[in-house]
Request: fold
Amino acid sequence: MTVDIDKTTGDTPPAGPEAIKAIPVRHYGRYISAVVAIALLVGVVYAFSQGKINWGAIPDYFFDDRILDGVGKTLLLTVLSMLIGIVGGVMLAVMRLSKNPVTSSIAWFYIWFFRGTPVLVQLIVWFNLGLVFEYINLGPFYKDEWSDFMTPFLTALLGLGLNEAAYMAEICRAGLLSVDEGQTEASHALGMSHAKTLRRIVIPQAMRVIVPPTGNEVINMLKTTSLVSVVQYPELLRAAQDIGQTSGAPAEMLFLAAAWYLLMTSIFSIGQYYLERYYARGSSHSLPATPLQKIKANVLSLSSRSKPTGGTA
Amino acid sequence: MTAMVKAEGVHKSFGPVEVLKGIDLEVKSGEVFCLIGPSGSGKSTFLRCINHLEKINAGRLYVDGELVGYRQKGDKLYELKDSEVAVKRRDIGMVFQRFNLFPHMTAVENVMEAPVQVKGVSRGQARQRALELLDRVGLADKAGSYPSQLSGGQQQRVAIARALAMDPKLMLFDEPTSALDPELVGDVLDVMRDLAESGMTMIVVTHEMGFAREVGDSLVFMDGGVVVESGHPREVLTNPQHERTKSFLSKVL
Reply:
């Protein structure tokens, strides 16, 4: 239970009504569940430390050139696929919302197909599309055999990017629909064109709804890139597996890859946080505290907790 | 005086529902024209037809002598392109019941937006003019505030300044005080009164009978999509001729 504490931080306690001093309710269930959880955790950690895993191999290979190269390729693939996904997604969302029944049906069909089939299957299909198209012929610009044109990198990029576009389309559509119609009307009433209204008024507001799930998509994409090891693209997982096979430490290399993925997703999460803060401007009276501000506030409140007054951080 | 807005047999339907059933009226240049009536009478819809936010189904609607939304060649009507409609809307300011300020921009950015984006005014000039307009509506000190940090009355006054920034020749007010706390209504009405005195042509859909009586030059009572009664506000409000007008006024006055 909480006791209402007078928030005026005066040196002398106000001569108001006497504050309630009660013995708080004891939550014995919480103590028990905490003990059980810690015990399980210790058990798991112990099991791993006793297992036949050569933990020393992980730091040995952590900054191995092949691993770093894999990390670079994973990041490149993530960024480029997301770029295709976002651009394609915005286009599909606008098509889906357009009054033209043909474009909106095409967008609907695209989303239906790419969301309805597993991305791993799509990747393999792209890789094997040489069965359908023997040659690629772009008139005078480019002509080649499909298998030469469709390198592992391009397969991975198209497979991930086009699949992502379908998901991004739904996210963007939800974002565009979330903006009040009055905003469009006000903008039109001022004489602004459709394009300007979309760019200056609707999209900036839609971003508040679009950014958080897009951040999730980026993190998902980073992890999904591990699937492209099946089309022979040497990204992080593939690099780790290759080292694992030659160095005789396959399991260790998987832990290494996991650590790298965790590190990268953590960094992306922080970036996402600040992006959300940027697009939240004007939406609430005060912005939420940044992690740094929170840490400061926590330190302050901890240091002042011993004092009877209780500082308001 | 010339007619700023002229309506001839204006009809508007939403699907099977006929909202406007033949509106004929004339708003003279420089006058304050009040539209009153019960909700659902079509007065807001008519207002929205004037700047082509709604398309009319029949009749003719002219603003400053030009057809709204169409071009007439011989006896054929051609629909205007979106860009042509947008050009015509520049001259017509509109103030909404729910303010519709852009929440991701500060007050001064809201006012600057259209001059910069539509008219191509430089940001510096637009800002200066925006600050003047905010001062005119009594909000010089709120220029850097976001709409969410302003009260309803302040938001509505920013919205008026935003509409004025385009130097319109006609201002449309769609129940500008209906969403406000009673104590904030006065500030907005003061700004509108000041605007009326400066000679602006204004069409005001309102439930503020006091404002209509004091500031209005003409008044129309609408009900069920038709004009029931019109005349000088003081006459209509104190001495209504129609039964329907009498019963409406007895409820709101």
Remarks:
- Confidence is low (pLDDT under 50) at residues 5-10, 306-313 of chain A.
